[in-house]
Amino acid sequence: MSGHLITVFVPRDSAALSVGADAVAAAIRAEAAKRDLPLRIVRNGSRGMLYLEPLVEVETPEGRVAYGPVTPADVPGLFDAGFLTGGDHALGHGLTEEIPYFKKQERLTFARCGIIDPLSVEDYRAHGGFRGLENALAMSQAEIVKVVTDSGLRGRGGAGFPTGIKWNTVMQAKADEKFVCCNADEGDSGTFADRMIIEGDPFCLIEGMTIAAIAVGATSGYVYMRSEYPHATAILRHAIKLAYDEGWLGDNIHGTDRTFHLDVRVGAGAYICGEETAMLESLEGKRGMVRAKPPLPALEGLFGKPTVVNNVLSLCSVPIILDKGGEYYRDFGVGRSRGTLPFQLAGNIKNGGIVEKAFGITLHELLYEYGGGTITGRPIRAVQVGGPLGAYLPPSQFDLPKDYEAFAAQEAMVGHGGIVVFDDSVDMAQQARFAMEFCVAESCGKCTPCRIGSTRGMETLDKIIAGKNVDANLELLADLCDVMVDGSLCAMGGMTPYPVRSAVKHFPEDFRKKAPAVRVTHIAAE
């Protein structure tokens, strides 16, 4: 940081841009010029407190001081209040690190997000970046895999499969070529952690993928991005170019005999391409349809070669594990759910954003201590956890610890950490119908239980909502859900019943509403 220049941070994160961060940055620049005050503006990632965006921070000797949410109209007043030296203002929150929402978190994966300039290798290095990769470059493949296995890291995309076991399978596979593919097709409702870390700390993903490649003997990798993330895609492509320029990607990484080439591919908006085999089909230039397993992608993946397929958050957890050791990471969490997960609070919530905490935190803590309840001020009636295939949970289940096994026991899932909140005005029969409707729209169509089952499910729910033969149709719906769970090729059809069953189980009254009485008017014959 330049000694004499005051540094002001204005996020370039998509969430901040959507509420005017660019205009705020321009207003600060213009106001500083008008007052002849030299300053440096850094466009950082988001700190994850989305309810305060655009969150403007100023570097002071005591630390960074936060102001938000800031509009361009607020900027002259901030200068008048002396915000460049941390002066008091109505929008002031004091030191960013002391804001309770932020202070109580355990930032491992998101340690740098919102702190550094996302496109500065120098900044990344100064905050511990590439230390894990440097350690990995001096280790054998088996040693790297052991550290990841010892950490207890599991897939953060939803399935929760142990990362070390997957890597070990690919490492031991014999092939002339291997790949590492990152699934950045973040399509779940209420999720934005992948996007936020790619926009706020893209080198973390590059480092994690490079470590994975070294561990398993892969030389090429691809990040499969969703088309709805143009800012993240642009930032990642820029970061990859910088990593090549600095010798962190390409042939002979930092003078070693290790090689890894990385590229970005953008999907076309299909939810099913978040399923690993459909993603591989799409990467190969084919229609995104689910493959039957076996063979597993770890043995026959991209172009029929052994392939590591991991989610963004899984790969972004790897650098800190290789930097600080598997035991350090394993010390966070409960049971078989080790480390931290960035939980994402969305929907009808007062304080939406990212809360990175160790596994074991309850839904109640997340919703009330961090989220602050609903934005409407009405009681929370239901939350959907883990995306559109996740169960709807009522307040009686809010003390459930966030832990893969505890949720699975309730036919629910932690998934990617997304939490969508509904107040007491929600109609849960309509939400159940939406689950089936979503499956109709997003099914790849390869298997009958999913393709046809979701359509029949929607029709059956329409009859229930209309009050027609409710008991018989609820029985039919339960039978249909069993067929979809047991017979679908992948989790798309196999988990669509989760939100439906949970809505029927926890909110039965919404499925037995009296059908509106039909008024019959007799018209006398002429």
Automatic annotation (TrEMBL):
Q: Name one Pfam family in it.
A: NADH_4Fe-4S
Q: Which cofactor(s) are needed, names only?
A: FMN; [4Fe-4S] cluster
Extract the InterPro entries matched here.
NADH-UbQ_OxRdtase_51kDa_CS (IPR001949), Nuo51_FMN-bd (IPR011538), Nuo51_FMN-bd_sf (IPR037225), Nuop51_4Fe4S-bd (IPR019575), Nuop51_4Fe4S-bd_sf (IPR037207), Thioredoxin-like_sf (IPR036249)
Chain ranges of the NADH-ubiquinone oxidoreductase 51kDa subunit iron-sulphur binding domain = 429-474
Q: Cite a single GO MF annotation.
A: 4 iron, 4 sulfur cluster binding
The answer to keyword Iron applying to this record is yes
Q: Which UniProt keywords apply?
A: 4Fe-4S, Iron, Iron-sulfur, Metal-binding, Plasmid
Q: Which family does it belong to?
A: Belongs to the complex I 51 kDa subunit family.
Protein name, as recorded: NADH-quinone oxidoreductase subunit NuoF
